[in-house]
Amino acid sequence: MKREIIKTLDGSTTIHLEEWNESYHSKHGAIQEAKHVFIKNGLSLFESNPVSILEIGFGTGLNTFITFLESEQKQQHINYVGVEAYPIAASEVLAMNYVEELEAEGFSEVFKKMHESEWNEEVKINSRFSLTKRKQFFDEIDDLEIFDLIYFDAFGYRVQPELWSTAIFQKMYNSLKPNGVLVTYAARGVVKRSMIEVGFTVEKLTGPPGKREMFRAFKKV
């Protein structure tokens, strides 16, 4: 599948898949989307408390890197697991301009380490932040009450509806601790119905730039 690095409206880059007419991030702004969906409406709920995060769709590592920068700012301990079935080559990801756009030149080696580290092994990025990249299909996830927060960042329902199924959301529900949270950029009715069916309490929030709404779901106990 042909891949092209493109610049989004906030100046940050993403990868565009021409065959699907689908991008790894919003064309309205990759960094803006990540900060709005996953940090503002996800990580911020945990203030400075230790948190265990599962990311569905590690992709370019943007969400991971922004989360690391937040952990530095708040001195927050984070255990981060990113699942990706089809990893991107480190050389391709390192062509992204995230370090510059986030004004994080002091952490350029951290971004590099995140992508050059081995898959399926826990890596200590520093004393507060650990990263495990798992090369795994989403339907193979079988964690039980391990995570506080899920970043659900799979490709869109339009191109991969199977990733937004009730079966997948059951795995997400099972993997969360009691009172855990899932956040996603999606806001389709069919997605909400699947979430509710497996037990989530779902709320609709204002979406990132270019998108009217998004979902946040809670594992209420």
Features:
221 residues; alpha/beta; eight-stranded mixed sheet; three-stranded antiparallel sheet; 28% helix; globular
Low-pLDDT sequence parts: none
**H/E series:** EEEHEHEHHHEEEHEHEE
Task: Classify the beta-strand content into a percent band.
Answer: 25-35%
Query: In total, how many beta strands?
Result: 11
Total number of helices: 7
Query: What distance lies between the first and last C-alpha atoms, to the nearest angstrom?
Result: 43 Å
Shape: globular
Helix content: 25-40%
How confident is the prediction overall: mean pLDDT? 95
- Strands side by side in the biggest sheet: 6-7-5-4-8-9-11-10
Give a description of the structure.
With 221 residues, the chain is α/β, with parallel strands linked by helices. Helices cover 28% and strands 28% of the residues. It has seven helices and eleven strands. It has helices at 30-40, 62-74, 90-93, 98-101, 108-116, 166-175, 189-198, and strands spanning 3-7, 13-17, 22-23, 51-56, 78-84, 122-124, 129-135, 147-152, 176-184, 201-206, 213-218. The chain has an eight-stranded mixed sheet with strand order 6-7-5-4-8-9-11-10, with helices on both faces. A three-stranded antiparallel sheet has the order 1-2-3, with no helix packed on it. β6 (122-124) and β7 form a beta hairpin. α1 (30-40) packs across α2 (62-74) and α6 (166-175) packs across α7. It is globular. The protein starts with a strand and ends with a strand. The model has no long low-confidence stretch (mean pLDDT 95).
